[in-house]
Specification:
Blueprint: E1 14-23, E2 27-34, H1 40-51, E3 64-69, E4 74-84, E5 92-102, H2 106-111, H3 113-132, H4 137-164, E6 181-189, H5 196-205, E7 218-226, E8 231-239, H6 246-253, E9 258-264, H7 268-272, H8 274-285, E10 291-296, H9 308-318, E11 322-324, H10 333-347
Helix pairs in contact: 3-4
């Protein structure tokens, strides 16, 4: 393992902040990096992947992306932008700001992605302002240095906040032995891309995956939830929504105790297909299907295409309650699992 890819013995999460620009002679180039100590080869690789996000596009996106650097076991939170410069071809310089972090710590990055996005956008806007005023390089370097230090302080604050809620290694509460657990197999089904995996990730790891990585067949995750007087262990089966896995899904349904039927509030097709998912699952769970309909991506208010009347009709048709959820904000995610646990324990 190279020095660049190896985290220090301290619990560092962030590696470096790289400011890159497209040079007309040499292509993507790391202009300023802080802290230093990362090899030129790695800096150039980071710059190349970052700048390539915007090359060939006619309209700049306001989105912030996360991309992997697998060979160095790191990832980058990237903000791309343009700097107006009439002396350059096209009248602007393609630029990128990349916060590089160790992939082993990506859960905390995904969890607090909105906070980190706002910070990197703020720094990028400051760079645009200074560059278009043609300030000296020293001033730009100071922005990168202070930007990285601000990120580091922010991450440390978030980590400390997390640790307040972590369980003690020797909790005082009653420990349950294996026999006292209720164990439930829970299915999460719905069309591809509706946010099933992000819901599971948010519930189990308190994180959110912004990039869409399709599930291959099934992902299985376990989590124990403490109720008032009982403990329930969920075995969560996150089942792929792609049609190519249709034949395999029947085997995954067997023995399930409950189900979450998930659709995307911004996609009418995923809503229309939910009845088919219900019938598909019902063949294996029998007449009395226990579960909830999760109307996901409720954070995208301006893009929602399903109204409350639609939700009421679906509830009456399938006989399941509807919860509006957001894997991004965590809205109603915990409540959904708590409610299904109470419902299943009550039947035992």
């Amino acid at each position: 393992m190279s020095k660049d890819s190896e985290p220090s013995s301290s619990p560092d999460i962030l590696r470096t902040l790289v400011y890159s620009q497209f040079d007309e002679k040499v292509g993507p180039k790391a202009r300023i990096t802080f802290p230093k100590g990362i090899s030129d080869k790695i800096k150039n690789k980071i710059s190349l992947k970052s700048i390539n996000l915007l090359l060939g596009t006619k309209k700049m996106s306001d989105a912030v992306a996360i991309i992997p650097f697998p060979d160095i076991k790191m990832k980058g939170l990237i903000k791309t932008f343009e700097i107006r410069d009439e002396t350059k071809r096209g009248g602007s310089i393609d630029s990128a700001l990349t916060l590089v972090f160790y992939e082993i710590h990506d859960a905390i990055i995904y969890k607090y992605i909105k906070t980190l996005e706002n910070k990197i956008i703020e720094i990028a806007n400051e760079l645009i302002n200074l560059e278009e005023k043609k300030v000296e390089r020293k001033k730009i370097s100071e922005v990168i240095k202070s930007g990285f230090q601000n990120f580091k302080e922010l991450i440390n604050d978030l980590k400390q906040e997390e640790e307040k809620f972590e369980e003690k290694p020797f909790p005082e509460k009653k420990e349950f032995d294996e026999k006292s657990f209720y164990k439930f197999k829970i299915l999460i089904v719905g069309d591809a891309g509706v946010g099933k995996t992000s819901i599971v990730l948010r519930y189990t790891n308190r994180a959110f995956r912004r990039s869409y990585i399709p599930t291959l067949g099934v992902n299985i995750t376990e989590k124990t939830v403490q109720l008032e007087n009982e403990a329930a262990r969920f075995v969560i089966w996150d089942i792929a929504g792609h049609s190519k896995y249709q034949m395999m899904r029947n085997h995954y349904y067997e023995g399930a105790n409950g189900v979450f039927l998930v659709f995307d509030l911004t996609r009418r097709d995923s809503f229309d297909n939910l009845s088919d998912w219900y019938q598909d699952v019902k063949k294996f769970l029998g007449k009395n299907v226990k579960g909830f309909i999760l109307a996901n991506k409720n954070d995208l208010k301006k893009q929602i295409k399903i109204n409350n009347s639609d939700l009421k009709q679906l509830k009456n048709k399938l006989g399941l309650d509807v919860l509006k959820t957001s894997a991004l904000t965590g809205e109603n995610i915990d409540q959904a699992f708590e409610e299904i646990a109470k419902s299943l324990v009550k039947e035992k």
